[in-house]
Amino acid sequence: MRKYILWITVLFLFAGCAKQIDNTTYISSQNNTNEPSMYSNSTDKTNSVTGYDERTISIISEQVSATDPQKPKAKEKEKEKVAVVFASKIVGRYGNDAVNTIISYSMYKNIDFEIKVYDSLYENQNNIEKAFYDASRDGFKNIIALFAHDTSVEYISNINSFRKIYIPTLHKKQSRTYNSNVLYGAIDYEEQYSKLLEFSNARITEIYDTDKISSLLSRYMASKGIPISKKYQIVKAQTNYKTLFEKNNILADSSLFLNTTVLQSAIVLSQLRVYEVSPRVVLSTQLNYNPMILSLSQIGDRKNMLIANSIGETHPKIQAIGTMLDSDFEYNWVNFSTLIGIKELLSQNDSDVSGYKIVDNQVKYDVVIYRPAEFAFVKLDR
């Protein structure tokens, strides 16, 4: 009996000394000699009714307290809060990229920050509205929303509890709904085509493939009335290019718009050279402003190629932090647009991100033409 009493006593003492575990992961954005930690989710809840997921990420910078007891404590600055809304089944990893971009900027600026992610899974009205109402309930006034469809803007048109909503993935031209507190950040392909047309001659040809963005760009060219002499579609499983390129006098000396993805573009450039077809110039939009085009094609294949780019320059420190968090600001335009968005939401007036301005709630980008040289993209002096 004494033995059982002793065991019960030990158990009570152990329970009394146990520490409660805090399930929130904090990330220090203070510059120090240690490498910054990767973020992790502090809460991971799936709403059984709506099906969307909520996750909170807290980022804090170290505060140095005064050691002099005579000095009153300074009033702590209110923590910055931004919610990220996206549909993971539609825009995929863009949600995680947005979070990494926000963390990169907060670490660069060394500011207290809190991010909460609302994953609506799909862009249907119920889920989108629920995500935004919950963000409002949780006290968020600034939202970064990664929408793929302009109808999603209509779903939130009657929600007026936010200071600003920034949409990096849509252009204002795509939206049929006006809301004074909604900012749009997508690049303008129409401006890129206008710039590229300055380098074309009267004979314009086009090659596109079955990829979604490629087909979209092809339809875009047609809708803008660009006079195309001949267009060719390449199917995904195509391996024989002889019938397309051999003795093709239409492509020869034409201004060829290459609306194909990077891998397909590299194949087309190679086959043009194999069959000795020499367009006067090969023109491409942001779609091929990607370092993979440099590694997948030969310098001789792309000697007549020009590519439009709307991504501006960022401070080297932001780029370094972004690289560490797998967030590319040099070639990924959605990440660059999100970076502009977080600056605008926080009203940061620094000049560490260049190449844009905001006019009538739309980010206006500089369009610069590059030549893909041997190991890098070289800005055209014109």
Order of helices and strands: HEEEEHHEHEHEEHEHEHEHEHEHHEEEE
**CATH class (first level) name of the largest domain:** Alpha Beta
What CATH architecture of the largest domain do you see? 3-Layer(aba) Sandwich
Low-confidence stretches: 1-50, 58-69
- CATH topology-level fold name of the largest domain: Rossmann fold
Strand content: 15-25%
CATH homologous group name of the largest domain: Response regulator
Number of extended strands: 17
Largest sheet, if any? Answer: 8 strands, mixed
- What is the rounded distance between the termini? 95 Å
Radius of gyration: 26 Å
Tell me, rounded to a whole number, the average pLDDT. Answer: 83
The number of helical segments is 12
Q: How many structural units, i.e. domains?
A: 2
Structural classification: alpha/beta
Describe this structure in words.
- The chain has 382 residues and is an alpha/beta fold.
- It has two domains: 23-61 and 77-186 and 313-364, Rossmann fold; 189-309, 3-Layer(aba) Sandwich (Rossmann fold).
- It has twelve helices and 17 strands.
- The protein has helices at residues 2-17, 88-91, 94-109, 125-137, 151-155, 189-197, 212-223, 242-245, 262-274, 292-296, 316-324, 333-345, and strands at residues 26-28, 43-46, 53-60, 80-86, 113-119, 142-146, 164-167, 182-184, 204-209, 230-234, 255-259, 281-284, 305-309, 356-359, 362-365, 368-372, 377-379.
- Strands 1, 2, 3, 4, 5, 6, 7 and 8 form an eight-stranded mixed beta sheet that branches.
